[in-house]
Write a structure and sequence with these properties.
The complex is a heterodimer of chains A (472) and B (307).
Chain A: E1 10-11, H1 24-42, E2 58-61, E3 66-69, E4 72-74, H2 80-100, H3 103-108, H4 110-126, H5 129-137, H6 142-168, H7 173-181, H8 187-207, H9 209-215, H10 217-222, E5 231-235, H11 237-241, H12 256-262, H13 272-276, H14 296-308, E6 315-319, H15 320-323, H16 334-355, E7 360-366, E8 373-374, E9 380-390, E10 396-403, E11 409-411, E12 417-420, E13 425-434, E14 443-452, E15 461-468
Antiparallel strand pairs in A: 2-3, 3-4, 5-6, 7-9, 8-9, 9-13, 10-12, 10-14, 11-13, 14-15
Helix pairs in contact in A: 2-16, 4-6, 4-8, 6-8
Chain B: E1 12-17, E2 21-24, E3 28-29, H1 30-49, E4 54-55, E5 58-59, E6 65-69, E7 75-79, H2 82-92, H3 94-108, H4 111-116, H5 118-135, H6 137-140, H7 166-175, E8 177-181, H8 190-203, H9 210-220, H10 227-231, H11 262-275, E9 277-281, H12 290-303
Antiparallel strand pairs in B: 1-2, 4-5, 6-7, 8-9
Helix pairs in contact in B: 2-3, 3-12, 5-12, 7-12, 8-9, 8-11
The complex binds iron/sulfur cluster (2 copies).
One iron/sulfur cluster (SF4) binds next to helix 13 and helix 14 of chain A.
Chain lengths: 472, 307
């Protein structure tokens, strides 16, 4: 791989040992993490009363082709909701990124969340940054083996719980867990768990920032949404460097007054912001593609400034406009407003659509082979395929009738009136027989109506179709 | 962006074009290289397991195999290929087994039970549709209506030559039917045939010549022509003979409905009387299994509404 001289086209990963930090952003991020973990790990265990169907609050039943989400049951024909949801997520990302940069990366992305947890475990077992660096440098011995082994063991445990929990969303959680540990769960459950255990362990334990830097497509295209007013984490160069650059707290450079007199900036070059950075970069070099906007360097520098009694914000949220001497980032920009508008419309439509989910539905398609049949009494018959779908949790009696075609007769054999089981889907054949006045080769509108039994409280559903009359 | 001078000098790859055109070196992570090697290893494993390389007119078949049951019921093991995988899935895949279980349920149910159960009906129809397309559609048309009136009856209408009850439909499919009407071209004069045709059309309400109709009427019921033997005195036909009901609007041999004028209708009926009818429905017993015949019976019964 080596080119002429010492040019390396491939570089080994530089291990990063982020130091821990306390501060408002760290607190916020722990909060987000606690919420995300709480929801993710506990949701499959939440029970829910339903008229029919499983008693699990959230369950994606692939075999039954139904997604249960609290009181909502999603059927395959509702799949466009998924399209709506994905669109909402996309616009939400555009909107948020346009305003505040990579907040998704820094606060919500599971790569960041899980890496945080893995780092926490690492620190718990191996200690703070200097201890970890020392441990990594020292030759293998009992202490190192135990500490590394324990760390990886705990990582694997978290990874396994992550994988297993994911699987629980696709089946009845308590039963699935019991089956899982007695070797009776479906193959897919084991395969998915193993796969997610492996990816979680590798991504959060080993690859870490490499995922953000080299693999993640969001990391790349989010930068396209940046503009001059987008919030970025940045270092106040003018304040930090002064006219003579940064300098450590030395003799005669202790107070701000002394430093300003010497032309030295406020940065004491303690390196804390670099040490806490999970991607191993130096924010003082400006905005870099590796930066996930986790804001930990802000907490780090604020801690230092607080201890010195100087004002915070040497490292802080800023924007290109501010960097270039502008006053402050503008929030209300056409782009942001546009995204907000689209987002509102999409959310509105989805909520409306979900709120108006029909309790049962009827689809009709005309049989086209043949288009018509001449009956022995001279009448013309058209045939139809009906699909009915009972989305309610109880039995549903339906009576079929037709509207709009005078003197026509609806023939559904023995199924003019049917009773659907809860959540049953059914295909039925129907025939309409009519005696047209003229055989004109035209189609006439006709409506097939499904009327629920009296007492169900449900409105009838109509489906418009056509009746074809052949040419005489 | 930050002042570029703050960055460390960026390394170049050492290449130079046109004297001074150089390329920055941003080293890829090393694991990236290893994933590349991993794909190479994957490819080699794949070549060993699966069909891969063309060799002359053939190809390397790979070690992986697929086992399925061929048309003669023999177990066959071939090199792995998607076609064989598909056949195996259709025979013993998860869905195929589910279908088999339900098929057994339907096979064990009585006709009455099937006809009363919307679930079993829906299942029967989707399976039988395929059977019908494979075995029956060549003559009766994919939807049960033949391409043209003449040789094969339309199964969609409500007229049944051999009866539309479940029992009779099953018998028709099982044993086949021979639809026969003698040709009268040599037995009767052209005038007689003309008169008969007029009478026959009058039965279904056509406004024909009264004189010819009366003559046809007596011929129809005479020993000379003997039409009433099969078509009965009223002209309604007999299921046991497969003789057509001449009083309704359904025509399965002469395309009366498709004729533009009365004269043409008369011509078409005359042609049938002159030439007779010889139609044959093959017996499916032995060619189709009992379950398949059962499914088709229910399907055909449903096509025309049944009796
Ligand atoms: S530079 Fe700061 S905000 Fe960016 S990743 Fe590092 S610590 Fe987080
Ligand atoms: S934490 Fe603040 S003071 Fe310390 S090196 Fe970073 S920017 Fe400078």
């Amino acid at each position: 791989m080596a080119e002429s001289g010492d040019t390396q086209l491939y570089a080994p990963r530089q291990a990063i040992f982020p130091r821990s930090v306390k501060g408002r952003f760290r607190r916020l991020k722990w909060g987000v993490l606690a919420l995300a973990y709480g929801v993710y790990f506990l949701l499959p265990w939440l029970r829910w009363e339903r008229e029919s169907g499983p008693d699990q609050a959230v369950l994606f039943d692939l075999v039954g082709r139904k997604f249960y989400i609290f009181d909502l049951v999603v059927y395959p024909q509702d799949i466009f909701w998924l399209a709506g949801l994905l669109m909402i997520f996309a616009y939400l990302l555009f909107f948020v990124t346009g305003i505040a940069g990579r907040v998704f990366c820094g606060y919500f992305c599971f790569q960041t969340l899980w890496t945080d947890v893995f780092l926490f475990i690492e620190r718990l077992i191996q200690g703070e940054r200097p201890a970890r660096i020392r441990l990594s440098k020292q030759p293998m011995n009992a202490e190192k083996a135990v500490k590394l082994g324990l760390t990886h063991l705990l990582w694997l445990l978290v990874a396994f719980l992550t994988g297993l929990t994911f699987v629980l969303y696709w089946g009845n959680a308590p039963q699935l867990v019991a089956e899982f540990f007695t070797g009776q769960a479906p193959f897919a459950a084991y395969a998915t768990t193993v796969f997610l255990t492996a990816t979680t362990y590798v991504m959060a334990g080993i690859a870490r920032e490499q995922v953000c830097t080299y693999m993640c497509p969001y990391a790349r295209f989010q930068s396209v949404m940046f503009d001059r007013d987008t919030l970025i984490v940045s270092y106040d160069r003018a304040r930090g460097e002064g006219s003579a650059g940064r300098a450590k707290l030395g003799r005669d450079l202790k107070t701000r007054e002394q430093r300003q007199a010497a032309g030295v900036g406020d940065c004491i070059d303690c390196g804390y912001c670099v040490q806490v950075c999970p991607t191993g970069i130096d924010i003082r070099n400006g905005l870099q593609i590796q930066c996930i906007s986790c804001a930990l360097c802000i907490d780090a520098c604020d801690t230092i400034m607080d201890s010195l009694g100087w004002e915070r914000g040497l490292v802080g949220y800023s924007s290109q406009r501010v960097e270039d001497g502008g006053k402050r980032a503008r929030l209300l920009r056409p782009k942001v407003l546009g995204y907000a508008a689209v987002l509102l419309v999409a959310v509105g439509l989805l909520v409306w659509s979900v709120g108006n989910q029909a309790p049962y539905d009827l689809a009709v398609s005309q049989v086209r082979q043949p288009l018509f049949t001449r009956l022995s009494d001279g009448r013309i018959e058209n045939a139809y395929q009906l699909k009915v779908n009972n989305k309610t949790g109880h039995a549903l009696g339906l009576t079929f009738s037709i509207e709009g075609l005078p003197d026509a007769e609806l023939d559904m054999g023995r199924f003019r009136h049917i009773v659907l089981r809860p959540e049953q889907r059914l295909r039925l054949s129907a025939r309409i027989k009519a005696r047209p006045k003229v055989l004109d080769g035209r189609t006439y509108p006709v409506t097939i109506v499904a009327t629920p039994d009296a007492g169900s409280g449900l409105p009838p559903v109509r489906h418009a179709t056509v009746f074809y009359v052949p040419k005489g | 962006m930050a002042d570029q001078s703050q960055h460390k000098a960026v390394q170049t790859t050492g290449h130079a074009w046109d004297g001074d055109l150089q390329e920055f070196n941003n080293p890829l992570p090393r694991w990236w290289l290893w994933t590349f090697y991993a794909t190479v290893v994957f490819a080699i494993v794949y070549w060993i397991l699966y069909p891969a390389w063309p060799v002359g007119k053939t190809f390397t078949k790979g070690l992986a195999t697929t086992t399925f049951v061929d048309a003669d019921g023999k177990e066959v093991t071939t090199h792995w290929n998607t076609r064989a995988e598909f056949i195996r899935d259709m025979q013993s895949g998860e869905e195929a087994l589910k279908q088999k279980a339900y098929l057994e349920k339907v096979a064990g149910a009585s006709y009455e039970e099937i006809l009363n159960d919307p679930d079993m009906m829906a299942f029967t129809q989707s399976l039988a549709k395929v059977l019908f397309a494979d075995n029956c559609a060549a003559c009766h048309g994919l939807g049960g209506t033949p391409a043209e009136v003449g040789n094969f009856p339309n199964l969609r209408d409500d007229a049944w030559l051999w009866g539309g009850s479940i029992e009779r439909i099953e018998q028709t499919i099982r044993k086949g039917r021979l639809g026969y009407m003698p040709s009268f071209g040599k037995v009767l004069s052209d005038e007689d045939i003309e008169a008969l045709a007029n009478y026959v059309l009058s039965l279904s309400g056509h406004d024909v010549d009264k004189g010819l109709m009366a003559r046809g009427d007596s011929l129809f019921h005479s020993e000379q022509a003997g039409c009433y033997y099969c078509h009965t005195n009223s002209g309604k036909g007999l299921y046991s003979q497969g003789s057509a009901n001449l009083t309704d609007q359904v025509w399965t041999v002469a395309d009366v409905n498709g004729a533009p004028t009365l004269a043409e209708k008369i011509e078409r009926v005359k042609s049938v009387i002159r030439n007779g009818v010889q139609r044959r429905m093959p017996a499916w017993e032995g060619r189709l299994s009992d379950e398949e015949i059962k499914l088709l019976t229910v399907y055909v019964h449903g096509l025309g509404g049944g009796q």
